């Protein structure tokens, strides 16, 4: 994570009213575009964007990116960080076939138009009940 914030003093927005970078109201799009124009001239645009992504900044224009663009970059950044720490990307795990007695086994029966076995039917019923109770089909750990 970026700890050194010395780059802030070199930012094109240094000394500006911060409200210019946080859009609201009817002119939100115009405000975002104006903020992005300021960012386009900024010598520390990259550091600003990296800081916003790494710290999870959710509001405003940072490094010339809108809130939507920041969310997308953050999603890619966090998913890349997860894959780099878990397993090499060159070795992908082969997908296992759905097993009978599971909800995915039930769905496989439906896809393949085969007779649904008792264990799969029960697993699907259990998952539906869990969904109604807890909001998820996943069994608690």
Automatic annotation (TrEMBL):
Gene that encodes the chain: whiB
Similarity remark: Belongs to the WhiB family.
Cited function: Acts as a transcriptional regulator. Probably redox-responsive. The apo- but not holo-form probably binds DNA.
Residues annotated to bind [4Fe-4S] cluster: 13, 39, 42, 48
Compositional bias of kind Polar residues: 80-89
Keyword Iron-sulfur among record annotations: yes
Residue ranges occupied by any 4Fe-4S Wbl-type domain in the UniProt entry: 12-72
Subcellular locations according to the entry: Cytoplasm
Cofactor: binding comment: Binds 1 [4Fe-4S] cluster per subunit. Following nitrosylation of the [4Fe-4S] cluster binds 1 [4Fe-8(NO)] cluster per subunit.
Reported modifications of this chain: The Fe-S cluster can be nitrosylated by nitric oxide (NO). Upon Fe-S cluster removal intramolecular disulfide bonds are formed.
Segments for region (Disordered): 64-108, 121-141
Keywords: 4Fe-4S, Cytoplasm, Disulfide bond, DNA-binding, Iron, Iron-sulfur, Metal-binding, Transcription, Transcription regulation
Protein name: Transcriptional regulator WhiB
Pfam family for this entry, one: Whib
Cofactors that this protein relies on: [4Fe-4S] cluster
InterPro entries: 4FE4S_WBL (IPR034768), Whib (IPR003482)
Keyword Transmembrane helix: no
Predominant localisation class: cytoplasm
């Amino acid at each position: 994570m970026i700890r050194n914030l010395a780059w802030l003093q070199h930012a094109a927005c240094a000394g500006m009213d911060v409200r210019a970078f946080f859009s609201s109201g009817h002119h939100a799009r115009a405000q975002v575009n104006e903020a992005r124009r300021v960012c386009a001239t900024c010598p520390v645009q990259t550091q600003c964007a990296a800081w916003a992504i790494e710290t999870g900044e959710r509001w405003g224009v940072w490094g010339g990116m809108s809130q939507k663009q920041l969310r997308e970059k953050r999603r890619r950044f966090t998913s890349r960080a997860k894959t780099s720490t878990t397993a090499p990307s060159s070795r992908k795990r082969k997908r296992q076939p759905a097993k009978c007695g599971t909800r995915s086994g039930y769905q496989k029966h439906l896809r393949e138009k085969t007779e649904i076995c008792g264990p799969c039917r029960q697993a699907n019923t259990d998952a539906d009940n869990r969904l109604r109770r807890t909001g998820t089909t996943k069994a608690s750990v």
